[in-house]
Specification:
The longest helix is centred in the middle third of the chain and has 20 residues. The radius of gyration is 19 Å and the shape is elongated. The protein is an alpha+beta fold and 145 residues long. Strands 1-2-3 form a 3-stranded antiparallel β-sheet. A 3-stranded antiparallel β-sheet has the order 4-6-5. Helix content is 39%, strand content 23%. The protein folds into 2 domains: 70 residues, Ubiquitin-like (UB roll), CATH 3.10.20; 63 residues. It starts with a helix and ends in an 11-residue tail after the last helix. It binds zinc ion. Zinc ion (ZN) binds next to loops.
Length: 145
């Protein structure tokens, strides 16, 4: 596919089929996340001329991901240490081998909340249990009392 076609496809709104504005503009947007609920972040976006749906640019999306990961880490660091379990115990709970824990794509992508201390990874017990049940151990960390 030529670059011309790609940019043409990218500028058509997925909601209504109309065109997006050509220029990006900076706006503070609320992004819904599984980990923290709504997170506000200034993003470069293109708005649809018709329905006002928006597209976020890829580099901004990368920045947003880093920003959210950082917020999640900070939040997790405020949890008491007894809420976390070792890799060994996580493997036992999930009934998987150590290698599977490292290779699992979902776990790699943060589907189980974890925190690294001195090069060792610890997993949030509640998140491991949720992962075992539903295949996704994430939940809104701001709603934990
Ligand atoms: Zn639209």
């Amino acid at each position: 596919m030529s670059n011309k076609n790609k940019s043409l496809l990218a500028s058509i709104c997925s909601e209504c089929g109309n065109m997006y504005e050509q220029k990006y503009k900076l706006e503070e947007l609320g992004h819904e996340t599984k980990e923290l609920g709504k997170v506000y972040f200034k993003s470069k976006i293109q708005r649809c001329l018709n329905c006002k749906d928006y597209l976020i640019s890829l580099d901004e999306y990368e920045k947003l991901k880093v920003y959210i990961d950082d917020l999640v880490s900070k939040k997790l660091s405020s949890f008491p240490i007894v809420d976390f379990i070792s890799s060994e115990e996580t493997c036992r709970l999930l009934d998987i081998k150590r290698n599977d824990l490292k290779k699992n794509q979902k776990i790699k992508r943060g589907y189980i909340f974890s925190y690294e201390i001195d090069g060792k990874r610890f997993f949030l017990r509640k998140s491991v249990e949720k992962f075992k049940k539903f295949g996704d151990g994430r939940f809104n960390l701001n709603r934990v009392i």
